[in-house]
Amino acid sequence: MLQETTNAVAATGSNADALKQMGVDHLAREMLSNPGDYIVQLVVAATLIIMSAMSWYWIVINLIKNVRIRGSADRVVTTFWETPNAQDAIRFMEEQNKAEPFSKIALDAAQAAAHHQRHEGSRLVESLNRSEFVDRALRQGVTRESSRLENGLTVLATVGSTAPFVGLLGTVWGIYGALIKIGATGQASIDAVAGPVGEALIMTAVGLFVAIPAVLAYNFFVRLNRVTNSKFDTFAHDLHDFFATGSRVGEIPSKR
């Protein structure tokens, strides 16, 4: 009876020790104290930390950028169309922040129209009429601003798709090392198996924690960019009509 009690207490202590070895803090201490035995796990952990830092950097940058654009878009577009004098409207666009995309698109159209007007009678005017020249400038402007909206999305997509596999690499290598140790020592008790395997599974969990925010942010920003690009196209079409014909489609010409 005493022997059974002793064995039970020993088993309980062994299980408790095994559970302690499954923690993140224990894994971190082991990796730092024995870097040679955890070289792959260290590389995986460093890679995941870098990927997480990059993804969160672009999440914050894109969030700030989209908030600024959505906050100023209606004001900039409305002020442009409500300004009775075209020169005043263009001057207002020139006063906007360099990162404001709608004003840059409008300035591209205005500069193209002015350039075409200054070179009337030249080969440029003979090869491209005013409408085509303004349209080309607007297409370039919209493409440029749309490309700027996509900054960082490639990083988010890459992190979201590869981080789980990077973490899985650390898990597979950790389990492989645990099996090697078990085979070498001949011990297959819970304290010999649970600790190394539990530590290895932490890498997969870390990979998922890195990937999930990146995937959610990528889908969120793609949706926002789609809406913003639609506004770019609408504004560009109105600008084309204005600078090519002197008025927007549907606008009633003022009587002189």
From TrEMBL:
Domain of life: Bacteria
Protein's cellular compartments: Cell inner membrane; Membrane
Keyword set, alphabetical order: Cell inner membrane, Cell membrane, Membrane, Protein transport, Transmembrane, Transmembrane helix, Transport
Coiled coil location: none
A Pfam family matched in the record: MotA_ExbB
The keyword Cell membrane is annotated on this UniProt entry: yes
Residue ranges of the TM segments: 38-60, 153-180, 200-221
InterPro entries in alphabetical order: ExbB/TolQ_transport, MotA_ExbB_proton_chnl
MotA/TolQ/ExbB proton channel domain location: 124-232
Membrane topology annotation: Multi-pass membrane protein
Family to which this protein belongs: Belongs to the exbB/tolQ family.
Protein purpose: Involved in the TonB-dependent energy-dependent transport of various receptor-bound substrates. Protects ExbD from proteolytic degradation and functionally stabilizes TonB.
Subunit annotation: The accessory proteins ExbB and ExbD seem to form a complex with TonB.
Full protein name: Biopolymer transport protein ExbB
Source species of the chain: Noviluteimonas lactosilytica
